Amino acid sequence: MDSKKPYLAAILCQIAFAGMSLLSKAAFASGMNVYIFLFYRQAVGTLFLLPITIFFKRQEIASLSVGVVFKIFMQASLGFTLALNVYGLGVKYTSATLGAAAFNCLPVTTFFFALIFRMEEVKIRKASGMAKVGGIIVCIAGVAVLAFYKGPYMKPFFKHHLFEAHESHVSSPKTWILGCFLLLFACISWGLWFVLQALILKTGSSPLVLTCGQTLSSALQSFVVAIAVERNTFEWQLGWNIRLVSVLYCGTFVICIANFLSSWVIKKKGPVFQAVTTPLNLIFTLIGSQLLLNDGVSLGSAIGAMLLVLSLYSVLWGKRKEMSCSDEETKNHPSVPPQKEVIDHI
């Protein structure tokens, strides 16, 4: 049974992330401000994480230097405040399904920045290098298809009024294209954030302290952004509706539980194992969009999503092939140091 726990945890992670895309889209469709949503989400996450972190990591918190605190604050502005706000706008302008599809870009963008920081290498004349480069090219092609081609539209199987929207679910061509590129920008920001986060973890900071510090920092930053954009007190009211459900879900299940499970899976089975389950997020979101949001799917979205999944597996196959060759070389030549792990947090 213990051997099956990582598989179950990985599936639960993707279900949680699919729920995030669906509930976020439902909240935005009800008229909720994206910036206010992010502040409430991060505030709820902080309320849950802060007491736990203080209880278990009190000594580590007290020993944090000013430099490390500053790095955590700046990383929060990149990976949380900027990326999540942009991602929220992207989902608002497109669909929950497209938001889930964008997650398949993360290993590709992370690899790209790892390459820039010389944490990763590409042997272009080998199959592994060709697969990595091909993955990046296919990823770009997938984004282009999502943005510029819609094609025939498949209507949802069920019609209901579970979530009443204040705005139309059908985006105009301009907002759709803008939303696609906002989602791409969010994935680029996360890719850089993953690489920088891996660097700061090597200094000795624990994942719990880092996550809590970034969540707290992002809550403060998001409040400044939200209050600057929206000062109408009516817009800040939640009420007993989908807005409150979305905030509580994302603040607890996603920030606290899903992120913890994701870290646990990576520790047990490695980052590649966690990454290959990413397409499950798209499948669960697609089903949920049909059943809950009355969202249909265009042919362009389906083709673009498949290209993103293909790019994901192309990069991961190249990485796996490269690691396999590196292990063989290490066995044959013990004096050659093994290749260091590159993307610790895909």
UniProtKB/TrEMBL annotation:
**Which residue ranges does the record annotate as region Disordered?**
327-346
The record's keywords, sorted A to Z, are: Membrane, Transmembrane, Transmembrane helix
Q: Where in the cell is it found?
A: Membrane
Residue ranges the record marks as coiled coil: none
Q: Name one GO molecular function term.
A: transmembrane transporter activity
Q: Which GO terms describe its cellular component?
A: membrane
Transmembrane helix in keyword set: yes
How does the record classify its membrane topology? Multi-pass membrane protein
Transmembrane ranges, per UniProt, are 36-56, 68-90, 96-117, 129-149, 176-196, 208-228, 240-261, 273-293, 299-317
InterPro entries membership:
EamA_dom (IPR000620), WAT1-related (IPR030184)
Q: Give all residue intervals belonging to the EamA domain.
A: 6-146, 178-316
Q: Check the record and name the Pfam families matching this protein.
A: EamA
Please give the family membership noted in the entry: Belongs to the drug/metabolite transporter (DMT) superfamily. Plant drug/metabolite exporter (P-DME) (TC 2.A.7.4) family.
Q: What is this protein called?
A: WAT1-related protein
